Amino acid sequence: MNSPSETRSADAPAADAANAPRSGRSHVSRFGNWREHHGWSAAASLRRLAGRPLGTLLTIAVMGLALALPLAFYLLLANVQSLGDALGRNQTVSVFLKPGQSGAQAMLLATEWRSRADVSAVTVKTPQEGIDELAAMQGFSGALHALDDRNPLPYVLDVLPRAGLDAAAVDRLAAELREQRAVDLVQDAGHWRQRLDALLGVGHRAVLVLALLLALAALLVVGNTVRVDIASRSEEIGVLMLIGASRAFVRRPYLYAGIWYGLFGGALAAGLAVLIELALAEPVARLVQAYDGKLVLAGLPPWLLLAVPLATAVLGWLGARLVSAWQLRQAA
Predict the structure, then answer these.
(1) Which domain holds residue 204?
(2) Is 37 a member of any domain?
(3) In this structure, are 205 and 67 located in the same domain?
(4) I need a surface site. Which of 51, 110, 159, 199 has the fewest CB within 10 A?
(5) Nearest to 287 by CA among 295, 279, 278
(6) Are the beta carbons of 236 and 22 closer than 8 angstroms?
(7) Would the CA dihedral through 204, 208, 213, 215 be positive or negative?
(8) pTM value?
């Protein structure tokens, strides 16, 4: 006859085997219920927004207009930078050699400077080419006749800095070229580059600050809308919490409402930005034509247009999360 301990020991594996499937089924059931409630919350919150179209459209319109402003300024700054490049931000550095330098010496210097990492190209301009350019300018023909056959112009090397160099790097390049023994004068538009870089730096910082402020405004708009919605259903929420519903269960539909607000507001902002690009297409085409196609103006990158609705959806969720947590804590 087995002892009670032996009986319990023998029965334990059978009990564990019987309880294991039940525990697994319980876990699967809980996950299924959680997933089902998420789906119901997303659909119910969307139906609730559609049930009050005027208020929903006004909230989405406010968010979309606010978030379209930093996108428009970002587009403007990107094209101002391109315009600055066309106007001379990457202007060549003109190096005038000392009188008496031969063409062979000029070609040797050009070959040496082309091998530098901060130089994109070097063009040699002969004294005769300089005279021809002066002859093409109005008002210089009389002065050129007085020169007879003498050509006092030196060789000039036009050094094009590598694309992407900032103003400080171009200034260092000009200073190093100025130290060459064969160089007489270096003309560089460094002050123009510095001013443009400083202006663009201020613009980028202003756009960042504006984007943060308007993102905070969008968060507050969503939060206030969710607060009003929770306040209007305070009795229903109280009944749910009395019968044992958790705070997470109660606030889940409001979190999805915040996500919908943010998603639709961000999509509207991206659409408005595209409309701004289309509205500017014709004058931009005329501006590019005026620069003989040398000016390249770009629109907003597709990744940014896709990222805006996702980012604003996160903002909407965050605003709804903060407000709903505070409201439910007060209700409890």
Answers:
(1) 43-86+196-331
(2) no
(3) yes
(4) 51
(5) 295
(6) no
(7) positive
(8) 0.64
